[in-house]
Amino acid sequence: MGGVASPRISIIVPTLDRPDQLARCLSSIAATVRAAHEIIGVCVEDDEATRHAFAEHDVRTIIQRTRGGYVQAANLGLRAARGEWVTILNDDCTLLPHSIDNAIRFLEAPAHRDRIGQAAFFHDTPLRRNVYQQIRIEDVVYRVGHVRGLCYANFGLARRALYERLEYLDERFGMYGADPDFSLKVWHEAKLAVAPCPGALVHHDRIDDDDARQRVDNDRLFAKWGLH
After folding, report:
1. Dist CA 221 CA 203 (whole Å)
2. Whole-angstrom Cα distance, residue 174 to residue 160?
3. Are 42 and 17 in contact (CB under 8 A)?
4. Which residues of the chain, if any, have pLDDT below 50?
5. How crowded is residue 125: how many other Cβ atoms within 10 Å of its Cβ?
6. What is the pLDDT of residues 35-56, one digit of tens each?
7. Which of 56, 69, 90, 160 is deepest in the core (most CB within 10 A)?
8. What is d(CA 113, CA 56) in angstroms, rounded to the nearest whole number?
9. pLDDT computed for residue 3 by the predictor
10. Gap between the Cα atoms of 169 and 178, Å rounded
């Protein structure tokens, strides 16, 4: 198992002990992604329900003997990716129609190809601070955030080569700080922009919100980039 032999995009799904949410996430990928793709799932060895869900959805599966955290799991998937493009989805997320394909077209547009390194997906976050841009669809508001005025991607798409160039996600962060940190690396180290893609939307159930861990990651992010 493991999807198409030559995927255009690799979709990384780190997960732990949430087979029902995972099944919805995987079903949304199957229903909405038209580009040739592979799904790379990362789970721990004793999570049998998750391994079963991966098998049912033809997922390339990476098994960790012990839990190493979300960011480590995401990096394992990124390093195993075969597609030209990569994205990371939480298991409590579902894609809206055409989101992945729209993000690829957005980054491949001649006006964006050499200027924008990462497409930021809009998502239905309840957060009201640090909103970079928002759109409303059928009474649901989807937002993209910013760090000190620079757009970042909670959910985003970029070339696999860019992840390799920037040495993947920084494992000193938890799941809350790794995404904005990578986007800041795109801005500052790759000298490329991160931009919202209006046709790329994600519904996020936000099951694991943890204010204390968010504060720790936020402090670490600001210290790393001198943003205090």
Report:
1. 25
2. 21
3. no
4. 1
5. 17
6. 999 999 999 988 888 999 999 8
7. 90
8. 36
9. 61
10. 6
Q: Amino acid letter at 146?
A: H
Side chain identity at residue 8, one-letter code: R
- In this structure, what are the phi and psi dihedrals at residue 46, rounded to the nearest 5 degrees? -90, 10
Query: What pLDDT was estimated at residue 207?
Result: 58
